[in-house]
Amino acid sequence: MNSLKFSEIYFTEDAEGLPLTEKIFALFKSAEKIALESAKELCFAPQNSPEEVTRAKKALFLTVKKNNFIEKCPGTAGHLCCNYFVAKNILGCPADCSYCYLQAYLNTRAITVFVNTADFLRDFEDAASGQTLRIGTGEFSDSLLMDSVLDVNKNLIEICSRTNSLLELKTKSADVAGLLKLNHRERTVMAWSLNPSALAETEETGAASPLKRISAAAAAAENGYPVAFHFDPLIYFENWEKAYEELIERLFSKISPEHIAWISLGALRYDPAIKAVIYSRFPDSKILCGEFIRGNDGKQRYLKYIRMEMFSKIRAMLEKHGKNMSIYLCMESPEMWKQSFGKLPSDIPRLDSIFKT
Length: 357
Known about the structure:
single chain; about 350 residues; alpha/beta; pyruvate-formate lyase- activating enzyme; eight-stranded mixed beta sheet; five-stranded mixed beta sheet
C-alpha cells in the first residue's frame, strides 16, 4: 500500500458515504477530493492522449456500478476462446506496462473503483454458484496491486471455496502474504504474467521482478494453491529464445508441474490506436519494432511464421519439464493452433475443462 500514491480522487454523489469510499479518503488524505455529477466529466476527449493516460495512473474515480459486474470474455471473431468470465470491480491499474492495452481501451482519466462492494460480492457469488465458471479479476486491472485498498480477495476466495467455480487472481505483484493461509480449498488459482527480466525492467514499470513473482508463486503453491502462468504478451526480440528459456528454467526450479493449473501463451498484439501512446509514453521501448500485420480483428499481430515459431518453441521449453500440463493459446485462430500445436484444443483432452462450454 505504501507504494500507492494518488494526487486526485474523483467521486460521484452515490459513492459518497459508502464504507470503501470513506476508507480510501482516509488512506489518501493528501489527495484532492473532487465531486462529479457524472462519469462523463472524466472521459478522454476526443481520444486518449499520452499525457492524460500518464495522469490517470495517479488519480482515482470512485463510483457505483449498477449491474454487470460479471461478464463473459467477448473473445475475438475467428479466434478460439477459452470460456473465461471477467469480474469487474476496478478498471485501470497502478502499474505501467508499455504494452498494456488499457492505455487505449479505457476512456476515463482515472483508475475507476466501484465502491459498492456488497453488490459486487453478491453478483460474484450468484455467478460462481450458478454454474461452474473460470472467473478472473485481472482482465481490467491487476488482481493484487490494489487489494491492500479494496480488501476484497479474501471474500472472493471464501466464496469460491464453497462452489465448483474457479477464481483466478492474475497479477504482476509478489505481495501474497495476506492470502496464503486462507481456506481456499484449491478453488482459487494464483496466476502470474511472466516475461524475461530484461523486458520486465524496461517494459513493466511498477511490477515486481519476474524472480520475485516466481518466488511468490512458489509460496502460494506451498500453501496448496494451484498456480498458473501467462506468457502473454510474448515479445520477439534479439536472443528471445535464450531469455525465455532461462526464465522457464528458473520457473521450474521453484515450481513443480503438478502444482500448475494452466499456462497460456499469447503473442504481442495491439490496437493501432495505442501506437502513438506507446511511442510518446515509452520513447525507449523497442516492442513495436518487430514485423506486424493487421489481423482480421483489426489488431496488429506478429507475422504468422513468427508467432508459430514462438508458440512452438516456448511450448517445447515448457513440456521439457512435464508433458501433461494444460498449455493453451490465447486469442489465436484454429490455423495457428494446428501449425504450432499440431491439433485443436478439442483434440487435447486435458484442455476440456478450459475450452468446452
